[in-house]
Amino acid sequence: MVMLSIAVNESWHDKVTKERMEATEWFNIKLFSANARIAEEHLSNGDIVYAEGPIKTRKFVNKDGVETVSREPYIHKFDILRTRGAAPVNHPARVASSLDDDVPRAEFDDDAPY
Question: 56: which residues sit within 8 A by CB, 6+ positions away?
Answer without folding.
Answer: 71, 72, 73, 74, 104, 106
